[in-house]
Amino acid sequence: MEGSVLPQHICHVRKSSATINRFHGFIHSISLIALIYYRLSFLLQSAETRAHAAVLPWLIVFAGELVLSFMWLLDQAYRWWPVTRTVFPERLPEDKHLPAIDVFICTVDPKKEPTFEVMNTVISAMALDYPPEKLHVYVSDDGGSSLMLYGMKEAWEFARSWLPFCRKHGIKNPCPKAYFSSVEEEHGTEFMAERRRVQMEYEMFKDRLRTTIEKYGTRNESIRCSGDHPPSIEVIGGGQVEMPLLVYVSREKRPSHPHHFKAGAMNVLLRVSSIISNSPHLLILDCDMYCNDPTSAQKAMCFHLDPKISPTLAFVQFPQRFQNISNSDIYDSGLRCTFSVRWEGLDGLQGPVLSGTCFYIKRVAFHGSFIQNEVGFLYQSVLEDYLTGLTMHCRGWTSVYCNPSKPQFLGSGVTNMNDMLVQGTRWMSGLFDVAISNYSPLIYGPLRMSILESICYAYLAYFPLYFIPVWCFGIIPQLCLLNGIPLYPQVSDSFCMIFAVIFLSSLSKHLVEVLLTGGSFQTWINEQRIWIITSVTCDLYGSMDAVMKKIGMREASFLTTDKVMDDEKEKLYQMGKFDFRTSTPMIAPLVILVILNMASFMLGLVRVIATGDWDKMLVQVVLSFYILIMSLPIMEGMTMRKDKGRVPSSITGLSFVVVMAFLTVGSIVLKD
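and the corresponding structure tokens:
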């Protein structure tokens, strides 16, 4: 129709997926109800009937089943109404009508977050396809390292050549490291000559940084990360035409005062930027998450400038993608389920969770409430993004999830077990911080936002509780198998089919989702395996950490993930081999469970064959076998591997002793 305005974005509802999800949920729910009925009917029998049964193991396994059922029920909210979105940045208004953007990049330790990598992120943000006079880049150096300030000045000098080159030739990758690492097609003599010139300047920039690092190293007091330093703010290259503003910020830190980790650094950037540029929109990036597409700001503005949704829209979340993930992705570093399933489901409700990085957010969303302690990023959890997003949604704000085919941002995923477990424990601690706080989603959320959105937040907050069923199912049925005590219905009993349906239903639904989102059968196995590993370790330790902080037994801590590439660890990762070089508290529980299940499966199988109790004990044999299949890399690391990434023999020996002691004590208890 003449005079009509074309939409800047379109929302596509995945109705077929929603229908399948609801049908599966209905069938699975009926099966869970039948399981609970079976367990309760046994426990409610007379004492005489239960006299010959082991009630305590039944109760423990039933508790694990209830927790697992509760978590499954919460997880279904993500699958209720999934949507995808298409944007049309070419329909945006002219540049002069676009709002200004402040970019926030946080770094803390040049030893773990190499300055050169951080500078590539800074330069890529400066090279966004956006009016340069409306773009301001702030870097928070929480370590107070002069090396970071030096790197920013050098990055600014190189950007003076890089930005004009990108604009003139429409370069599609604004990160110089990624661009010069790829093969460029021939575009004519003039272009290639200019490309070589800019690349030479880039190599000189890289060499200057490398020389400075080698000359001073991290031993120098002015170079290394410090937790005790004065504040420092420096505007770099201010007033330059056709160049974004670049600002270095290092807040004051003293050992005697809490600094609240990343949340504190972000709030300092909020205050500093409000004085210097005060842009209405912010882009938040991790220091290793470089811009992979110069048009991300335009795509975000397709939502922020839509008058229909803009008044309540707080932020536009892009997925986190990673450039160093192998095809096998043995550590599930790509977070496929989060960014390809759950966030699309949230987008059909009130919007995705604030995810730490890769989002464009309105400044007013941080200042829209003047309640004490609810301005800016909140401090009550080390996972400040999750909690802050929760309170925003509770105040009526919404969010959208934009997932274009080309990744808008690329970062570095974890490629060794130690980093995976450290990162996972920190995440679980932060989530459980919220679960046991006044912001617990099932209490704080339902009256303030949609019930389904509250349930989705609750699933994340209570995610660490997965350690309960995994530990229960990894120990109790195995111990009972060795002692000839059945915990599940006989194969000939119709209720046995209920357990089989629940088990196969969960596995098959997960497999279908993996395949539909571009994964493979091996991806499915890897995700199952990592879920077990992190449940045994990260979920347990994260929950304990949160509880100890709550009762005052320890203070909050924040361990950054090491972004420095280790050639030996990287080689193992690319070969698809687990690197078990981590702390004893992390690896020992895994080895203990594996040895326990090996003993249970082999000895239990012999016992079943000798006694002919297949009808009673088959389910427990299958459970041990499943756990062993998922633990093959650990068994390989214990027995077959000779490289440095193997499971230390001392850990294997210690775990064996613990298992033998546990089996002995367990047998005595069960016989009594």
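(Above: one complete record from the training split.) The longest strand covers residues 101-107.
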